[in-house]
Automatic annotation (TrEMBL):
<feature type="active site">
    <location>
        <position position="308"/>
    </location>
</feature>
<feature type="compositionally biased region" description="Polar residues">
    <location>
        <begin position="1"/>
        <end position="11"/>
    </location>
</feature>
<feature type="compositionally biased region" description="Basic and acidic residues">
    <location>
        <begin position="12"/>
        <end position="21"/>
    </location>
</feature>
<comment type="pathway">
    <text>Carbohydrate metabolism; tricarboxylic acid cycle; isocitrate from oxaloacetate: step 1/2.</text>
</comment>
<feature type="active site">
    <location>
        <position position="366"/>
    </location>
</feature>
<dbReference type="InterPro" id="IPR010953">
    <property type="entry name" value="Citrate_synthase_typ-I"/>
</dbReference>
<keyword id="KW-0816">Tricarboxylic acid cycle</keyword>
<dbReference type="GO" id="GO:0006099">
    <property type="term" value="P:tricarboxylic acid cycle"/>
</dbReference>
<dbReference type="InterPro" id="IPR036969">
    <property type="entry name" value="Citrate_synthase_sf"/>
</dbReference>
<keyword id="KW-0012">Acyltransferase</keyword>
<dbReference type="Pfam" id="PF00285">
    <property type="entry name" value="Citrate_synt"/>
</dbReference>
<comment type="similarity">
    <text>Belongs to the citrate synthase family.</text>
</comment>
<protein>
    <recommendedName>
        <fullName>Citrate synthase</fullName>
    </recommendedName>
</protein>
<dbReference type="InterPro" id="IPR002020">
    <property type="entry name" value="Citrate_synthase"/>
</dbReference>
<dbReference type="InterPro" id="IPR016142">
    <property type="entry name" value="Citrate_synth-like_lrg_a-sub"/>
</dbReference>
<dbReference type="InterPro" id="IPR024176">
    <property type="entry name" value="Citrate_synthase_bac-typ"/>
</dbReference>
<keyword id="KW-0808">Transferase</keyword>
Length: 431
């Protein structure tokens, strides 16, 4: 018998059943109601699954009230400041930080898989010149299963590891190819001598006609952004990856489903919304007007990139990336850019104005990531692609955990049917 139980009583029949409560390392406990339907003939009704734990997980923990984000128990602030994206990827996949030899082996494995099959480039020729890069990314990631279908055995640990390394390695190459298609430039092959983030920058911005010099500050900033986005518990896209993966589909298809879910503006497009907001405000002289609009509950205008639906305190990821954002702007000599000057004025007001401070509407990671991407010269519509690239190790770690969990079964959410009652078919000539 569990240490803690909850009794559910049907007030019509008087029947009562005791259910065990599952305790985690951190966070709220969960009532184990998997036998509720067989016990009572009822489902639970929870739109958006906001009060439902769909799985057990050892990977990521969030305490939104306290502003805490842990990857495998490590605070995100420590990882973003001291670690690298590949080291964090190893941590998410394997549960522990690597030693020097393990990290070297992992980095080598990722590096040798960065190339994509040459015929994969033909996929991009089929896209319109102004196709949305997330459409290209989702389609091309899904197509990877056609290239590696014979080597995918989701029940074999070595096969799962190989798939994980391949998808983490190839995402920058695919993302950069989508970028080059978007801007009408030739694709750039990966260079094994470069770091993961340095290689991505080179594939995005180098051209055959001139050598591209990678800024160490930009390289560090991009690596931090990838770390900050690497996982975020059971969000919409991660849950989509798990749900698709529960059918036994191959991991590339499952990751593609995560890309499709992330594309939604309510999920992965938040930093795009920040840039659109800055465009609407126009310049720093209009900030006070828009601050007043944001405070007016009857005005539809909302400040994007401030506050967070999960973090009721300061977004822990914003603490690190705020400092990096200012370093990037200074390094690129863009501190006086009108849009960035506007953004900095918004930031200053939000950190000092009692209205925002009392409501804890602090700048979040999307606010700063949008500014960094803009400063680096990345088009707004490409922001979500970089989000997907950063989230990939989290998705594949969550998929792996789901496959290995013997208690997990195919996802089958239920419903409360409110449509027409049963009725008989009426022939066409009598309607």
């Amino acid at each position: 018998m569990a240490k803690h139980t909850v009794t559910v009583t049907d007030n019509d029949s008087g029947k009562s059943v005791e259910y065990p409560v599952r305790e985690g390392t951190h966070g709220p406990a969960a009532i184990d109601i998997k036998t509720l339907y067989s016990d009572f003939g009822h489902f639970t009704y929870d739109p958006g699954f906001t009060s439902t734990a769909s799985c057990r997980s050892d990977i990521t923990f969030i305490d939104g009230d306290e502003g805490v984000l842990l990857y495998r128990g490590y605070p995100i602030e420590q990882l973003a400041e001291k670690s690298s994206f590949l080291e964090v990827s190893y941590l998410l996949l394997n549960g522990e930080l690597p030693d020097k030899n393990e990290l070297a082996d992992f980095t080598r494995s990722i590096t040798v898989h960065t190339m994509v099959n040459e015929s994969l480039k033909n996929f991009f020729d089929g896209f319109h010149y102004n196709a949305h890069p997330m459409a290209m990314l989702t389609a091309v990631v899904s197509s990877l299963s056609a290239f590696y279908h014979e080597s995918i055995d989701i029940n074999d640990p070595d096969s799962r590891t190989l798939c994980a390394h391949r998808i983490i390695a190839k995402m920058p190459t695919i993302a950069a190819a989508a970028f080059k298609h978007l801007v009408g430039e030739p694709f750039v092959y990966p260079l094994n001598r470069l770091s993961y983030s340095g290689n991505l920058l080179n594939m995005l911005f180098s051209r055959p006609s001139e050598e591209y010099e990678i800024s160490p500050i930009a390289e560090k900033a991009l690596d931090q952004l990838l770390i900050l986005h690497a996982d975020h518990e059971q969000n919409a896209s991660t849950s989509t990856v798990r749900l698709a993966g529960s059918t036994g589909t191959n991991p590339f298809a499952a990751i593609a489903s995560g890309c499709a879910a992330l594309w939604g503006p309510a999920h992965g497009g938040a930093n795009e919304a920040v840039l659109r907001m800055l465009e609407e405000i126009g310049d720093a002289s209009r900030v006070e007007k828009y601050i007043a609009k944001a405070k007016d509950k009857d005005d539809p205008f909302r400040l994007m990139g401030f506050g967070h639906r999960v973090y009721k305190n300061y977004d822990p990821r914003a603490t690190i990336i705020r400092k990096t954002c200012h370093e990037v702007l200074d390094d690129l000599g863009m501190a006086n850019d009108p849009k960035l000057e506007l953004a900095m004025k918004l930031e200053d007001i939000a950190l000092k104005d009692d209205y925002f401070v009392e409501r804890k509407l602090y700048p979040n990671v999307d606010f700063y990531s949008g500014l960094i991407y803009k400063a680096l010269g990345i088009p707004t519509q490409f922001f979500t692609v970089l989000f997907a690239l950063g989230r990939t190790p989290g998705w594949i770690a969550q998929w792996t955990e789901m496959v290995e969990d013997k208690e997990q079964r195919i996802g089958r959410p239920r419903q409360v049917y409110t449509g027409a009652a049963r009725r008989d078919y009426v022939p066409l000539d009598k309607r």
